[in-house]
Amino acid sequence: QVQLVESGGGLVQAGGSLRLSCAASGRTFSRYSMGWFRQAPGKEREFVAAIIWSIGRTYYPDSVKGRFTISRDNAKNTVYLQMNSLKPEDTAVYYCTADQSLSGLQLGHSNYWGQGTQVTVSS
C-alpha cells in the first residue's frame, strides 16, 4: 500500500520561503515520477512540479519556475518542494503525488495522492 504523507505547510509572509516534505512508503519508487499539485479555494487542482525519481530530472510550469525546486532524498524516500519568493497567489493546499507515468502525473491522473498540507501566504 503506497502512502504519501506531506508536512511543512504553514503561514508565511509574501517573499518568504517554505519547504514541503513528502514521505513515501509502500513501494520502491525508482521507477516512479513524483510531483506536487496545489488547489486553491474555488479553483482546479494545478500542477506545480515533478521529478523523475531515477534520474532526478525536474519539470515546472511557468507560474513557479525559478521560485520552486523539487528534489528527492533516496535514502529517506522523501520528496521535497522548496518554495521561495512566495506570493499570496501561491496560497493553496499542496498535494504530493506519485505515478509510474510522468505524463499521467502531470495531467493529474496519478494513482497515489497524499492528504495535502495548507500553505498560506499573507500580503
Verbal overview:
The chain has 123 residues and is mainly beta. It has one helix spanning 102-106, and strands spanning 3-7, 10-13, 18-25, 33-39, 46-52, 58-59, 68-73, 78-83, 92-99, 112-113, 117-122. The strands form two sheets. Strands 2, 4, 5, 6, 9, 10 and 11 form a seven-stranded mixed β-sheet that branches. The mean pLDDT is 96.
| Number of alpha- plus pi-helical segments | 1
Q: Report the portion of residues in β strands.
A: over 45%
What spatial form do the alpha-carbon principal axes imply?
globular
Overall structural class, as computed from helix and strand content, comes to mainly beta
Q: Helix proportion of residues, in percent? A: under 10%
Number of strands: 11
Which radius of gyration do the C-alpha atoms yield?
Answer: 13 Å
Helix and strand pattern: EEEEEEEEEHEE
Poorly predicted ranges: none
Give the structure's gist in a few sentences:
The protein is mainly beta. It has one helix at residues 102-106, and strands spanning 3-7, 10-13, 18-25, 33-39, 46-52, 58-59, 68-73, 78-83, 92-99, 112-113, 117-122.
